[in-house]
Amino acid sequence: MHNILLTGVNGQVGFELRRSLQGLGHVHATDREQLDLCDPAAIRDMVRALKPTLIVNPAAYTAVDKAETDQAAADAINATAPAILAEEAKRLGIPLIHYSTDYVYSGEGSAPWRETDPVAPTNVYGASKLAGEEAIRASGCQHLILRTSWVYGAHGKNFLLTMLKLGRERDALNIVADQIGAPTWSRSIADITAHIVAARPDWQAVSGIYHLVNGGETSWHGFAEAIFKLAAARGEKVPASLSGIATEAYPTPAKRPKNSRLTLDKLRDTFGLVPPSWDTALELCLDEVPPVIQGQ
Ligand SMILES: NC(=O)C1=CN([C@@H]2O[C@H](COP(=O)(O)OP(=O)(O)OC[C@H]3O[C@@H](n4cnc5c(N)ncnc54)[C@H](OP(=O)(O)O)[C@@H]3O)[C@@H](O)[C@H]2O)C=CC1
Ligand SMILES: Cc1cn([C@H]2C[C@H](O)[C@@H](COP(=O)(O)OP(=O)(O)O[C@H]3O[C@@H](C)C(=O)[C@@H](O)[C@H]3O)O2)c(=O)[nH]c1=O
């Protein structure tokens, strides 16, 4: 049985991991108050007191635009904290499971990225996540770095819930149609993580970077279309007009990659696991989001 240290339990993925990891041992789930990842001494103290057999770290600084002017905080949480967790994992001889992002890639071209492709983040958030990955690999600890993308769920701050809210408030929406990737349900990430742990892999042998996203691809506009189709079918108000626009027509402080396609071959070949397609996952997730029907 594992003794698992879980960070960021109030985040989208942390919330789901707390449930998915039950049954594999004791899950010591921590929020920011119980373990502030900006405090290196607190991280070391926690690991040394708890003596976990596995560390799972979904906590992160995920405010992509804010990170452009808040690099110190993004680096502390996304780069320094994973480095310390990795050092401690190495000292204890235990695995560290960490999550990263499609934003480590440049976004050029249209071919799906493989884990071995060159990285070239286009924004501060992506660079801070890459620094976290590099520190983990340099530590020599047993690790899985799971790169995911476009995460949403029934809880937290995400594109799905933003669209449902904007759909109620506005009659017309313009959504970027030339950034392509895979919307990924936080539950899929947590379930696949738990399947990997349950299979008791040879951690040394499997250590490395893996993509972990829902299957298939779409644009943010395609994702919004699918959300509103499902929302309309259950009687929710949706915008009368939904237009696809170019990235350039939706200026943001942080530059986003246009090509976020990630191959899942390595995950399948190593662990025999294939996540559900993004549209199936979306439908399942929406079953857990209560509809808001106006006038009721
Ligand atoms: N969201 C996305 O679209 C994507 C996310 N990822 C990666 O997946 C992982 C999970 O992301 P997701 O669940 O969506 O992220 P969320 O933003 O939903 O959750 C992140 C969690 O980290 C916590 N956290 C932030 N700062 C600290 C700190 N100083 N000490 C302790 N906890 C802290 C937050 O706490 P609090 O609740 O108190 O703010 C929050 O609970 C991350 O590694 C992220 O980089 C990758 C691709 C896409
Ligand atoms: C709200 C809105 C967004 N958009 C666009 C902006 C952007 O290109 C896209 C998504 O916007 P968001 O701000 O939700 O996305 P963003 O915060 O960039 O999402 C990213 O978060 C980090 C943490 C990751 O690691 C990435 O994988 C990715 O999920 O939709 C519109 O075009 N119209 C709109 O009305």
Task: Summarize the structure in short.
One of its GO terms (biological process) is dTDP-rhamnose biosynthetic process. By secondary structure, this protein is an alpha/beta fold. The chain has helices spanning 12-20, 40-50, 64-67, 71-92, 124-139, 159-169, 186-198, 203-206, 220-233, 265-271, 278-286; strands spanning 2-6, 25-29, 54-57, 96-101, 143-148, 151-152, 172-176, 180-181, 184-185, 208-211, 218-219, 241-245.
Main sheet strand line-up? 2-1-3-4-5-10
Can you give the helix content as a percent range?
Answer: 40-55%
CATH class group of the domain at 2-157 and 183-215 and 260-276? Alpha Beta
CATH architecture title of the domain at 2-157 and 183-215 and 260-276: 3-Layer(aba) Sandwich
Report how far the terminal alpha carbons are from each other: 48 Å
Which percent range describes the beta-strand content? 15-25%
Small-molecule components bound: NADPH dihydro-nicotinamide-adenine-dinucleotide phosphate, dtdp-4-keto-L-rhamnose
Cofactor: Mg(2+)
Function: Catalyzes the reduction of dTDP-6-deoxy-L-lyxo-4-hexulose to yield dTDP-L-rhamnose.
Catalytic activity: dTDP-beta-L-rhamnose + NADP(+) = dTDP-4-dehydro-beta-L-rhamnose + NADPH + H(+)
Keywords: NADP, Oxidoreductase
